Amino acid sequence: MEHTPVVACGEAEESLVGGTVVREMAKIRASTSRLGVLLREALEGNSTVGAVFEELEGSISRAFSLLDRKQQGGDGPPSSEHRSSEIPTKKRKVNPACDRRGGCRRRIQSSSLRIVKSKTLDDGQTWRKYGQKEIQSAKHPRSYFRCTHKYDQGCMAHRQAQLSEDDPTDFVITYIGEHTCRDPTVVPPQMVSASIFQDTCLISFGAGGHGVRQEASVPASFASQKQESDEDAASNLTTASSSSGYFLLPATENPVVTTPDVTSGFHTATDLDMDFMADTYLEDVFGFDDDEFFR
DNA sequence: ATGATTTGACCGAC
DNA sequence: GTCGGTCAAATCAT
């Protein structure tokens, strides 16, 4: 009675923050890797660049594993996907000690949040739907998707999709987090540069888009969105001008877009939380300034 | 058989 | 207490 709460609370908090840092580090590592590929292509034959990047990647990997070890502690908690594997009961059993269902919700804490209007849910990425919910203030249900590679590659990208209130033929899609997965069929270089060049805008395929793969019809409920198989994704590559459903344009041309403030029904971003935490941790834990780091 | 989707339950934030 | 995000068993599709 007299022991656990304070300690448990502190550990939970530390674990939460650590998890955030781990996710950020994963993104850093993935971005660095991609940047390395791009730089090597651009500066082909320059062995110095390659050497520097290998060193950089090595440092990040070491930091990542250290952090990961620290977060796991000695207990070696089960991974989320095996959370309940030991209890094959008929009805779900909740393990109050470790069940994080719904934890850290409401406030979307992500360093990347984009809201896009689109005629189709198909954006060239592979998503897995994990839920659908009627939303109080909205006419249409909201569907929840996570990246197919969440578990195999730890990709933390999520999205929420909802039919637009204004135009029910449009989907309002909220992208949360960046893809850190490396599915060669779905991660175009353009998407990589999206987070680098902030002057660019992410736009969806508009109604009048050309060379756009369009759904034959928009279902009344998009719950039955078909998941793209790799084969489909590959065929998308051939039919669409980009494997992604989006083009990157200079900020001066942004016909259909989508900034967080146009979506009154959606969450407002709280990006600063995580950015701040990541900054703080990078400085405190690793002793370097990420601004310098990414320069 | 395998993987994706559906859907009710669960749980933390508000 | 309500609401929204997530989980996971059941079901469906391939």
TrEMBL record:
Chain intervals with Basic and acidic residues compositional bias: 80-89
UniProt cross-references to SMART domains, sorted A to Z: WRKY (SM00774)
Classification via InterPro entries: WRKY_dom (IPR003657), WRKY_dom_sf (IPR036576), WRKY_plant (IPR044810)
GO CC terms: nucleus
Localization (cell): Nucleus
Keywords of the record: DNA-binding, Nucleus, Transcription, Transcription regulation
Location of region: Disordered: 69-100, 216-237
Domain WRKY, residue spans: 116-184
Matching Gene3D superfamilies: WRKY domain
Broad class of the protein's primary localization: nucleus
Example of a GO MF term: sequence-specific DNA binding
Protein name (record): WRKY45
Organism: Musa acuminata subsp. malaccensis
Taxonomic placement: Eukaryota, Viridiplantae, Streptophyta, Embryophyta, Tracheophyta
Gene: WRKY45
